[in-house]
Amino acid sequence: MIKNITLSFLLLCSFQMLKAQVETGDILIKNGTVITITDGVLEDTDVLIRDGKISKIGKDLASGNAKTIDAAGQYVMPGIIDAHSHIALDVVNEATDPNTSDVFVGDAIDPFDVAIYRALAGGVTTSHAMHGSANAVGGQCETIKHRWGVSNPDDMKMDGAPRTIKFALGENPMRVHGEGNRIVPRTRMGVEQIFRQGFAKAQDYQAEWKAYKANPAGALEPPKYDLKMETMSDILNGDIIIHCHSYRADEILMLVDVLDDFGVKKICFQHVNEGFKVAPELAAYGAGASVFADWWAYKFEVYYSTAYNATILTRNGVVTSINSDSGELIRHLFHEAAKTQRYGDLTDNEALKLITLNPAIQLGIQDRVGSIEVGKEGDIAIFDKHPLSVYAIPQMTIVDGVVRFDIKNDNDDVRIDINPEEKISSFIDHHAETEADRCMQDVYEYFADQKQD
Amino acid sequence: MKGIIIKSIAVIVSLLLLSDMAAQQIAKSTYGDVLLKNATVHTVTNGVMQNTDVLISDGMIANVGKGLTSSSATVVDCSDHHIYPGFIDGGTTLGMSEVSAVSLTNDFNEIGDIIPQMQALTAVNPNAVAIPVTRVNGVTNVIVNPTGGIFPGTSSLINLVGYTPAQMDAGFKAVAMNFPSAAKRGRWDRRSEEDIKKAQEKVTKQIDEFWDKLTVYHKIDSASAKKSNAKMTYQPEMEAMLPVYRGEIPLMINVNKDKDIEAAIAWVEKMKIKAILTGVSEGYRVADKIAASGLPVITGPVQAIPGRSEERYDVAYANAGVMSKAGVKVALRTNDTENVRNLPFHAGFAAAYGMGVDEALKAITINPAEMFGVADQYGSIEKGKMANLFVSTGDPFEMKTRIVHLFIKGWKVPIESRHTLLYNEFLERSPGLEEK
């Protein structure tokens, strides 16, 4: 008995240790030009963060025991949010079935990925660590906060952020499964049926469980538990936001129709290069769009693109964000957002919304991050010039009131883990890398290995 | 009467159709004398001139000065606007690939390790959709590069206007080379250090053997040139390489890793050839050595991640500036196909991270023009140069700035591309949501 109690106690302790212990801080940012996003631009204004949350915004705030940062002449904006990235991940694609809704990207978080630090050095505090686009229904994604320095993968997770899942249309699932594995989908027709089948089966699954629960005694045994069906069910119930890799207008409309048939409302299209063609339909359905600023023509389904996509979508009333899908682009999303002022006529605030409040809305975390408001989390990026200027250099990035990047204290080698087998550091010629969207990470490597063997 | 009405209707309908057609394709470029009045002229070579006029005539910059007049020229008021020389990208595959994932549209990588006879200019599609997309951001000239292998072919400098490669040819060629590399080719490159070294040695041996043959070929060719009836056997790779061997055209050597850069410099000195280093990602590690060699550098993309995981996040941003400050003549490249239009933004990043705006501007104008031996025609706003220039609302490195007029070889090129046409068509789609 005592043994059992001791064991339970130890177990409890270890669970306690495993549970995320998020470090928060107290910071007073003085005299900056504060770009709130939701309440205009405030000159010579202080922002006070207490216990990791924004507690006051105003003039001449007292610091108390908070660390003070002089931001005179600098620009203070909400931490940048990337609604589509694959940094901080060990693996990206479970490319073994057209529907892998039973896998979790959250099981593959790598807190030591130096890309996290590089993203912080670009003012990015939150990113949506996504499953890849090899499957029509991919794995479930994880919204993470860039708490560079922690070693427990769970400490990277944004606790309480809504569940999200990756869907994918078009060439990637067609190539991997149709061309690669000779199974459906080989065409956009097949892609549609993967969704219809997944949702229809989930409806049956729900009905079986409902019947069983209504009368457990009447059944010989309970229905079989199926994690894929559980996930599809949760989507039907509105508990998971779909983030769907997509390019062409026709396939986008296809998914809207499928979701409409099954009563699923929470959808944000990703990449959505031809979103501009169906912007009125997207707006009418309430679908979000998370786009590249200017990537196009790298594959046929993005040949008919326009860099004015974000502007057209915004002007048609679609909640739009600009994402990176890249360990390089994530470092200058402020610059990507500014391109909407070359390719379109978005105002400063509209452009900055694309990388702050709008991605927050798409991830369902707009009550916690995405603007500088009292009560929101203390995620801040500070720039020396206006963040939409090409000459702007991020100076400091704060997550939960903790400084995670400071250009004045930026060490030469920031790695947390170092490969002991590496005799000398190896230089990777990134020019030589095959150009491909990161969405297909691990899949090309898989094919490349096959070729070598 | 009825006939006239029908004719009028026909005319109106055809006009309407024409205007519809115009919305589907880019307007033609126009040619003629143009006088740009009262601009802030960023000459690059003679400083910034306020309230200054630029006269374009016969495709050339006929004059730069105050109070210019012309009886023949169309006058364009450029008050509050800026004039810059057209930007030059020192390394692209623009026009050589339409859709990179569709292999049959890719024309930059021919089979073979030593094939300098392959002409990039041959593979440039003057009607590539990406060309107008590029030039509307002020990029008027690019180097088109063949890729892969050791000597993948001959690069060319082109103007981004014209319907044939010959019309686009800007008169500079260089043989491209990929220097034997000790770099990993990507995160998926799982070769051991020994395997990489072996591969590098194998390539070095191939080059040495080729160069020995080239030396012999040069000697025979020089000797046979004196006898009019002597004829060499057909050896296109030797023929294409002779101008490099004889120092008539440069070799553009793509090299990125620090030790490889040092090796490339030593090799160029040994071979006594003209050369330009390209890529040079780790130039910041050996900047003084590059400066001492006197070799010019075309580096980029500026917006790139570090080649080593332990390096500072901004080494690629800062690289051009570090080399420039060490005394290296630096030009920039995007190394891109469809997004060469970002060249001014790469320059902006280089400027912010240590290069300064003036040097960054030179790195995409006069510096590459000088490296390519075409500075008498390109790279600055000067009387007698080719009219490759644009008019902007402000600093062209800033995203907010608009390019309002564009001239290439004196042709007034419309500020239109697939991207602007789709914008015009879909900003307010018609029909909209209603089903009619």
Describe this protein's structure.
The complex is a heterodimer of chains A (453) and B (436). Helices cover 28% and strands 21% of the residues of chain A. Chain A is built from 12 helices and 16 strands. Chain A is globular and about 70 Å long. Chain B has 436 residues and is α/β, with parallel strands linked by helices. Chain B has 13 helices and 17 strands. In chain B, strands 1, 2, 3, 4, 5, 6, 15, 16 and 17 form a 9-stranded mixed beta sheet that branches. In chain B, strands 7-8-9-10-11-12-13-14 form an 8-stranded mixed beta sheet. In chain B, helix 5 (193-225) packs across helix 6 and helix 9 (315-325) crosses helix 10 (343-355). The longest helix of chain B is centred in the middle third of the chain and has 33 residues, at 193-225. Chain B is globular and about 60 Å long. Chains A and B meet through helix 2, helix 7, helix 8 and helix 12 of A and helix 10 and helix 13 of B.
